[in-house]
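Tutorial, part two.
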Amino acid sequence: MADLSFIEDSVAFPEKEEDEEEEEEGVEWGYEEGVEWGLVFPDANGEYQSPINLNSREARYDPSLLDVRLSPNYVVCRDCEVTNDGHTIQVILKSKSVLLGGPLPQGHEFELYEVRFHWGRENQRGSEHTVNFKAFPMELHLIHWNSTLFSSIDEAVGKPHGIAIIALFVQGKSKTIPCFNPNTLLPDPLLRDYWVYEGSLTIPPCSEGVTWILFRYPLTISQLQIEEFRRLRTHVKGAELVEGCDGILGDNFRPTQPLSDRVIRAAFQ
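Running the prediction step on this input gives:
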């Protein structure tokens, strides 16, 4: 597959069972201005939240990150579930792909669970993290869970060394990417400089214990593909919109959070 052809209005909202709907009542959240996630999700008030602004001059070079090479052992996924949950596009992978090495605990495998996208309505914004206060049009997250310590991603969330996320900044030019081969989402091996810090999920419940690995060089896709994301809707066709909502899915990024006393490490000089 040579493009992101799954990004269409036909990406379905999965039907929820009645019990699931009841369980989700009272925990609605969104990206609207003034919405305070911490009022509903206590973890969002934590000291080590994500995303953050990466000040490249203050990042500390850590040669130990190169002792064991960061190794994404990804396989082509031929059985994926693609959903629009009203907040983002999720690609849930059924084939087993793992991440090892780098800043991760030695000998631990982190299994790739899903890919998530965050984007802006304009090219000047969209990424969750910023670099020297510069935002990119989009940010892509490859979310992994520690399958050495835990039996499921649900068990791993919120635990030390439970979750690892590779983040890729995305900019629009002329290239297309085959989305369902996770290897093609990564930069060339010679361009895999990265930063590392400890943070949280960027969506509720915003649980901490997440190791963030942010590649320095952005992924390039076509501007047309970015525009396809901006055509997506937050609702099923024909549904009644909430007052003040135009129904366009975009600007689905959390503002940067205080760095506090955390240290950003760099695997390059």
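Residues 32-266 form a domain with the Carbonic Anhydrase II fold (CATH 3.10.200.10). In part three we will examine how such features are distributed along the chain.
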